[in-house]
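Troubleshooting log. The previous structure file for this entry was overwritten by mistake, so regenerating from the original sequence record. Sequence copied from the archived sheet and checked twice against the printout by T.R.
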Amino acid sequence: MGFQHNVKLAGTVTVGPKGQVVIPAEVREQMQFGPGDKLVALYIKDKKSVLLITEEQAQAFVTHMGEQFTQFKKDLEEGKES
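Regenerated output below.
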């Protein structure tokens, strides 16, 4: 399934005078966001979109990328020894 099948309209938000928005209740419930949760906002320039992920999701991504880099470096070093 493509990206289009994973996207649905979940409601609308209004930007307040301080730039704040309220995440629709349905989205908060599905994503299990609660009061005090920290989210990371990512801006997708070519799509002019904002993506919100939890700090835990962001950390898991960074950790995974670090592991991938470590493995890539190891593979390169092993290739040089051959």
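Residues 22 and 69 are 37 Å apart (CA to CA). Archived copy saved in two places this time.
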